[in-house]
Amino acid sequence: MQHTSPLAALRSLLKERELDGMLVPRTDAWQSEYCAPYDDKLEFISGFDGSAGLALILADRALLFVDGRYQVQARQQVNLEEFEIHHLHDEPIHLWLQENLSVGKRIAFEPLLMVNSQYESLRTSGCDLVAVDDDPINKIWATRPAIPRGLIRQMPDEISGESTASKCARVAQALARKGVNFLALTLPDNIAWLLNVRGSDIPTSPVPLSFALVKNDGAVEWFVDEAKLQQLDSSVLESIAIHSPDAFLTRCQQLAAGKRFLLDGDNTPVAVRFAVEQGGGDIEWQPDPITLMKANKNDIELEGYRSSHIQDGAAWINFLAWLSHEVPLREAAGNPITELEAQEKQLAFRQECDNFIEQSFGTISAAAGNAAMCHYHSAPETNFAITGHEFYLNDSGGQYFNGTTDATRTLNFGQLDAQRRLHYTAVLKGFLSLISLQFPQGTQGHQLDAFARRPLWELGLDYDHGTGHGVGHNMLIHENPHRMAKKVNPWPMLPGNVLTIEPGYYLAGSHGIRIENQVEVVASIPGFCKFASLTLIPIDLSAVELPLLSEQEIAWLDDYHQLVRETLSPLVSSTARPWLIEATAPVRTQRM
Amino acid sequence: MQHTSPLAALRSLLKERELDGMLVPRTDAWQSEYCAPYDDKLEFISGFDGSAGLALILADRALLFVDGRYQVQARQQVNLEEFEIHHLHDEPIHLWLQENLSVGKRIAFEPLLMVNSQYESLRTSGCDLVAVDDDPINKIWATRPAIPRGLIRQMPDEISGESTASKCARVAQALARKGVNFLALTLPDNIAWLLNVRGSDIPTSPVPLSFALVKNDGAVEWFVDEAKLQQLDSSVLESIAIHSPDAFLTRCQQLAAGKRFLLDGDNTPVAVRFAVEQGGGDIEWQPDPITLMKANKNDIELEGYRSSHIQDGAAWINFLAWLSHEVPLREAAGNPITELEAQEKQLAFRQECDNFIEQSFGTISAAAGNAAMCHYHSAPETNFAITGHEFYLNDSGGQYFNGTTDATRTLNFGQLDAQRRLHYTAVLKGFLSLISLQFPQGTQGHQLDAFARRPLWELGLDYDHGTGHGVGHNMLIHENPHRMAKKVNPWPMLPGNVLTIEPGYYLAGSHGIRIENQVEVVASIPGFCKFASLTLIPIDLSAVELPLLSEQEIAWLDDYHQLVRETLSPLVSSTARPWLIEATAPVRTQRM
Fold it and tell me: Which residues form the Peptidase M24 domain (chains A, B) (predicted)?
């Protein structure tokens, strides 16, 4: 997986322009987690294909900053003779620049690829930030893929639960209350939510890459490639003015004089700020109000999530029953099932579901040490066998017309050693601690994160990723703003929020464990909330040290497995049904 | 406790000066939690004597903002026909002003009584903030108490563990690293730490009210009333320039031209900012570096804490043994022990300790419903009897020459009902959950707070105060910067930090429960920390529903009680010793 990067070409371009360096973020103008290949400049320049990262190309050094999830993967994908690997959070780029470069160094950046808060933090570095609008990477990227032109489809009101007119009216009210004239929308899931559409520019991310302006009377201008609109009913477009995406910044500048724009400092490209300021407009920096509206799912959306999870759960059970049967047989026959074969089979089971569209992210199908890379994706050259003496981790999900699923199970098909069993038990106990919690309405994610970690902390262990993220409604798999993590997340959790709970443990080169359910926040006794599982998949208990579980933990597992069995037994294949019965058998009986 | 406030006099003064209102905070120039009576303008104006609050006096309304601890107490102390009571945190004053007053209203404030961050937040309210330097309240406060002139004593290096010269050198290094010329010190505990002195201006707060300037070469100018210095050895003062406190602002202004001052935006009066700016200086807004240096206790300080807690623990046990013996006898005799009698007796036991100086805060000695007011102090007119059918809560501590103690026990002398037992058990379980935690070094307080709340949350209950605070070394009972609370606290917890753990539960008019130990953070296995109890006092288990405790919880209690018994048995009175043995008997045996 070593990769020779086109650094020399970029460096000579920088030299020509008297630039001392250039920032190349893993981002596009839409803050997409999964970039279109067209936009993945970081992979082009470095070879690293993870979902977050930043390269700094200097004349004599090249640095790649990646987070905890990607420390292993980056070192495998990048040519370490060209790139140094740094930690994205432990060494913030602005501090690195401040401490390592002399004041006034000219560092280039593309203003569509940087949000305002990054820009402001970089300004504290003492470097001279030079905005370059002409896409310098494009000049050296001979084999750049085509710009995405995915068709856009309508999301019917019967599935979204609210008409575009009603949503626009709510947004207009919010803008009027804040005393702003325009909301500049660049987040594609917020545009998709507002206009009740879904896109297909990027596999697994059904949101259209486009821009929009909402006026404080609810009028919408949509900056979208017309080629993407062919399938849309004309009635959808009736009340919306359509422009080319290339016209977006110019239009912001044109409209700006004397007007106030609401921009989201953490999500809007700083290019929009420059356009508004050049046009003589004012900026109100606030989170995009749609982000929170979208996170509070309505009853019809929640019903859709539940329904899609029932379908997805049945597909999981058909897959797990097949896998449990085949793994020992194939291992004994000397022809073990591999990660890639398993994920293909799983996809085939999902494709049997009526409402299934596509995967909701690239499946992580990882055996043994591969699972220690949290966001590993199998490839022919890394494709491990699934056997009885190592864990197999599967993190996958589906986009359904009425919801999005995301779940992880870590599976044992044989006899694992005491250390692996202890680690698995600790991860399970953390999962149970958080998912069974009752908490005051409005509690924030960072207040609860440690419940999922404590059993690992007791062993002196931890995991270097968040504990839970929001999930979109047939939209992005990682939806803002809610998160449960060590990092502060200011958004109160309320009934109708949909999140994951996914503690894990990873031992490099040995094994990776993660257990993940998607949950909805539901009202409990007055003033308090609970989590209710959307995910309906048996949790493998064969690697658990049962004596370490409390009565309450066992009661939760037995209740959950009863729910899974009763809900899904009628829906799974007749060959999977006996497996389901066994996999959901109550622990209480086993212990007696 | 109703109080008729001198509002009319203040209002006519405001009218004369064409002011629409005035802010009267419960604060002095030193951010003292316990103000000198001389400085307690909020009590003068409103009658409320809690440790935090803010009044806003307008022409036709007067508002008192207090936090969750004081909602009950404020309504008892204040004339509710004159004052409306508001919530200090739920209704931030700047938002209240913004929403309720028209733009440009002239609101007066005293710039020595407001820190920069409050000033900046008030500036967003749209009001015209008018700094008044001539102490208008003084004009109407005929019976104002005398300005405090408490003697200052030396803290020997053998107890502080580090010389003033060494501390000044460390501070000078920090200033040089930050590129600033001067540190303006206004926090009295930071001055006390730096100069190895203790003061006596305010009972229970052994810190001198004064100001100081530290230059980046380590030179110190101390702005302190010379009358307070009589007891100090001349050698202590040799290397320090002494000025009058009244000269402080003028001196800042004199020194400022072309110089950079480090000011702590959350703690330095905005008057210092005005002085530096008027003198042509620059300001570097950063937390006072001494705050963190002081929080990381050295080995000699930690040894002092441990030793003072052994003394304090013995005094507690002598008191509790006496109380346990007397409460039923005196109740039966129709002459029950009262809150005030109990706290006097407790003080007498503490005064038997060699190193005891004074109480570390006003004792909370509260029976039955009085304990539902978290920061209640007994008075003849509220003085409840201590009986066998209600909880008695005692929160008290001592200032010792080598440390400061703070502990709470809630006691049962008879048979309490099921609800009280359940509440007590939940508070105890929260206490045990947090105190037994192992956590990654550097974890922040808000990440751990919820462990202490979860057993209450399970019952749909909670408490409206923080879970733990730092404690000074023969200094302030609430020491910054570490805190465990719902609110974000960015300071990483490291070995050598000293905090309390004190969950509670309060049912207005019925009962209040709190269990509090002081702990030090200690290193555990590599990368992890634990809490080690400094407090050595038996925890009353007579109101616990023992079947609700886990094996681990019982093991912690038994281990703790064994430590208390073995450490203190030789030190308590012979009459208290049998009580100690019984109060620390292992639960394991009782259960079998």
Answer: 305-521
